[in-house]
Amino acid sequence: DDAEDVSLFDAEDETTRKSKKSKIRHPLASFFHLFFRVSAILVYLLCEIVSNSFIACMVTIILLLSCDFWTVKNITGRLMVGLRWWNQVDDDGKSHWIFEARKPSSRGKTASSDSESRIFWLGLVICPIVWVIFIFSTLFSFKIKWLVVVIMGVVLQSANLYGYVKCKVGNKSNLKSMATNYFGRQFFRQV
């Protein structure tokens, strides 16, 4: 008998299905990580077509950007990549920025998946770049009234980007060692 066990219609066995499901461990957080960002951009692009009210558009965009800032800072960063940051004011009135990164578990595995990490960092990096492009398009098209909205988009999304890069990289000596290690590996790969 030369027949081998093959699943019909490319059906996957139970273990493969479970491993694919486990790639995104927090689907709701992943959705909202991108939802508010993309919604703010879409509202900005389509606002003049849908509504004649600048104030309504501006308020809607700023609310979406604020929801995005809060969601990314307080929820998705912690769940998706294990990073968080905040500002703390001590008794003397001095402001201290605190950046934390979750330590890997005792099994050597991180609690976040590669898919979630990729979604998180791509959303975190691409959207501020889009808002910077909007600054130039606003200036060149002489729509100065939209400049305040676009600057709010850049500020809020860049603040989250800066906070999470500081969490991931740590202090400056850590950044220097990461760059040295990266370029050293690239050099040895070419040789």
Automatic annotation (TrEMBL):
Record-annotated membrane-spanning stretches: 52-72, 119-140, 146-165
Keywords: Membrane, Transmembrane, Transmembrane helix
Keyword rRNA-binding: no
Cell compartments where the protein resides: Membrane
Main location: membrane
Membrane topology: Multi-pass membrane protein
Keyword Membrane: yes
Family assignment from sequence similarity: Belongs to the TVP23 family.
Protein name: Golgi apparatus membrane protein TVP23 homolog
Taxonomic source organism: Polyodon spathula (North American paddlefish)
